[in-house]
Design brief:
11 helices, binds adenosine-5'-triphosphate, six-stranded mixed sheet, alpha/beta, 6 strands
């Protein structure tokens, strides 16, 4: 058989319980679970079910996790791909991938299609660096728009796309009947961070001095991905010194390590600062 062009997960186990904080976003996205589970409730009244929603927010804040949880809650397959691997060097490949994706999704409907980094393919047309290099990306974007317009609202396919650059997106993507819903996902506040710590502390063997509230207070600016990283680093550090459980000192060291990594990354991005 042909190599998969994208990941398809037909048995998603992630649910809203795995997504901490993000209460407003969860509330909004619950509507989509309902569309997938009870389409006729909407269509029998003549309503058109939305085809797509954009999840907007900084890296690591749980956009992919939330999209997966929608599939998990609705019990439908999850097709995912990244805008950056959509953009192929070879003429026609990107557009062919899009068509193939929708063909498979139609066969598996109801389902979720998740496009990470939609901005890589959905940058406004006629914008960007080298002329010529962009033509292929634009072909891919055009075929995405054609596919989105081509399926009926009751086909059971909902497309979720994530970006942290909504400003560069082609306005055509956000016309009615395309990604006409926007859900913003922000970095967590101290309450959100505590909730995220609690999710990621669950599988770890903790010493009694570990306090999620204190960890949350010490990690301003951290996204969920960094919090998950801190929890795992702390467990690795404790294991390396053959401890029976993970204590606050291990978390302290893990936070220092993750903060160090973030600082390095920021330096690489903005060397003049
Ligand atoms: P990117 O834009 O970089 O793709 P993203 O917003 O899609 O990032 P995810 O890939 O969903 O972020 O998050 C990475 C990991 O961080 C998740 O798999 C999870 O372990 C953790 N995480 C992020 N946000 C949350 C959250 N709200 N609750 C629990 N875990 C979270």
């Amino acid at each position: 058989s042909k190599a998969a062009l994208f990941d398809a997960d037909s048995k998603v186990k992630i649910t809203f319980n795995d997504v901490a904080g993000l209460d407003e976003a969860k509330e909004e996205i619950k509507e989509i679970v309902d569309y997938l589970k009870n389409p006729t409730k909407f269509t029998k009244l003549g309503a058109k079910i939305p085809k797509g929603a954009l999840l907007i927010g900084p890296p690591g804040t749980g956009k992919t996790l939330l999209a997966k949880a929608v599939a998990g809650e609705a019990g439908v397959p999850f097709f995912s791909l990244s805008g950056s691997d959509f953009v192929e060097m070879f003429v026609g490949v990107g557009a062919a991938r899009v068509r193939d994706l929708f063909k498979q999704a139609k066969e598996k409907a109801p389902c979720i299609i998740f496009i990470d980094e939609i901005d890589a393919v959905g940058r406004s047309r006629g914008r960007g660096s080298m002329p010529g290099a962009n033509d292929e990306r634009e072909n891919t974007l055009n075929s995405l728009l054609v596919e989105m317009d081509g399926f009926a609202t009751d086909s059971g396919i909902i497309i979720l796309a994530a970006t942290n650059r909504p400003d560069v997106l082609d306005p055509a993507l956000q016309r009615p009947g395309r990604f006409d819903r926007q859900i913003s996902i922000d970095k967590p506040d101290v309450v959100g961070r505590e909730a995220i710590f609690k999710v990621h502390l669950k599988p770890i063997k903790l010493s009694t001095d570990v306090d999620p509230k204190q960890l949350a207070a010490q990690t301003p600016g951290f996204a969920g991905a960094e919090i998950a990283n801190v929890c795992n680093e702390a467990a690795l550090i404790a294991a390396r010194s053959d401890k029976e459980s993970v204590d606050m000192k291990d978390f302290q060291d893990a936070m220092d390590r993750v903060i160090g990594g973030l600082e390095k990354k920021n330096k690489l991005i903005s060397p003049e600062e």
